[in-house]
Write a structure and sequence with these properties.
The protein is mainly beta. It contains 3 helices and 27 strands.
């Protein structure tokens, strides 16, 4: 399988090599899985330190990796809590994809591992989808998916890349393993496609649309991939938005809609209850996930008064409760910096 492509690794101006090293140390310290114990005051007995947070910020057209131990961050300064950053603007290896247009409104940020290397996965509503190496930011694969609102992305074990495109109404599986600008792809229709996740337990590509959660079988070859629908699940409410693995309860998926946050058990084939559901569930959640290190749940939902009506400068934590603020931020989604897919 190919490693990072697209030029020499570089470290950007916002964060130097020293902070990248700090993040590496922090990730090593929080790489194990710990179960949160009994709640005592504002802490959870036995809970490990939280993983960092990766956030797609539309206010600055950038993705940030943030130290979750800080209550707030200032990306416009030398804040040590801003551990690493990425922006397609001015990025070597992406000039041909017109990032001034295609990098409009970053909509997704995930971390994945492949062949011993770590990658940041990003999409933007303007059409850009990209997989870039961490920490050097060398481009593994990138494409302009068009004007259909690229909304989510995942990296498969064979090196190919799945992208969900919402107003376009489809999920594509690109043959990214064949080259850094590969455009060959398989495609299935899915109205309002907002989320996509490769599940190693079921070996299925799950995708979330406005009314359905679907399981897709990957066939063909890495060079000529194929997709076929093997399961369709009607959502309990309309407006499917975010899809992510439940890392503390294997075999479950987080599913958000316009009005609620659910968990779906892939083996039982049903939506099931979960701890703190009455507090975590609510309208407008753009992303949700639990930290395999600390057990905390991270939620991003629009904050009234933000200049971007679908964005927030404040993230919410549960178990234990708390908030984290990106000063002057316009975050759309935020996730724990973990490559765990839920095995």
């Amino acid at each position: 399988m190919r490693g990072p492509r697209g030029g020499r690794a570089r470290v950007g101006s916002v964060v130097g090599r020293s902070l990248a090293a700090v993040l590496a140390v922090l990730m090593t310290a929080t790489s194990g899985v710990a179960t949160a114990g009994e709640r005592s005051g504002t802490t959870w007995a036995g809970a490990a330190p939280a993983s960092p947070i990766v956030a797609a910020d539309q206010a600055t057209r950038a993705v940030y990796v943030l130290d979750a131990r800080q209550a707030s961050w200032d990306a416009g300064s030398d804040d040590p809590g801003v551990l690493w950053s990425f922006s397609a603007d001015g990025r070597a290896g992406l000039e041909d994809l017109r990032p001034d247009v295609t990098w409009t409104n970053p909509s997704e940020a995930k971390v994945r591992d492949l062949d011993g290397r770590r990658y940041l996965l990003v999409t933007a509503s303007g059409g850009l989808a990209a997989v870039v190496g961490y920490p050097g930011r060398a481009v593994y694969w990138a494409a302009d998916t068009g004007t259909g609102n690229a909304h989510s992305i995942d990296l498969l074990p064979d090196g190919n890349v799945a992208v969900a495109v919402s107003t376009g109404g489809y999920v594509r599986l690109y043959a990214a393993s064949t080259g850094s600008r590969a455009t060959e792809h398989a495609q299935v229709s899915l109205a309002g496609a907002h989320g996509v996740h490769w599940d190693p337990r079921t070996r299925l590509l799950w995708a979330l649309g406005s009314r359905q959660l679907v399981a897709l079988q990957v066939g063909g070859t890495p060079e000529e991939p194929e997709l076929s629908v093997v399961r369709r699940v009607t959502l309990p409410s309309r407006g499917g938005h975010d899809l992510a693995p439940v890392l503390g309860s294997r075999g479950r998926l987080w599913v958000t809609t316009a009005s609620a946050v659910y968990q779906y058990a892939t083996s039982d084939r049903e939506f099931v209850s979960y701890p703190l559901q009455s507090r975590i569930s609510g309208p407008g959640v753009k992303s949700v996930g639990d930290d395999p290190a600390s057990g905390q749940v991270l939620v991003a939902r629009p904050d009234p008064g933000n200049p971007c009506t679908w964005c927030t400068d404040r993230l919410f934590l549960y178990r234990p409760d708390g908030t984290r603020t990106l000063l002057r931020g316009g975050m759309y989604k935020a996730r724990w910096w973990t490559a765990d897919r839920g095995r």
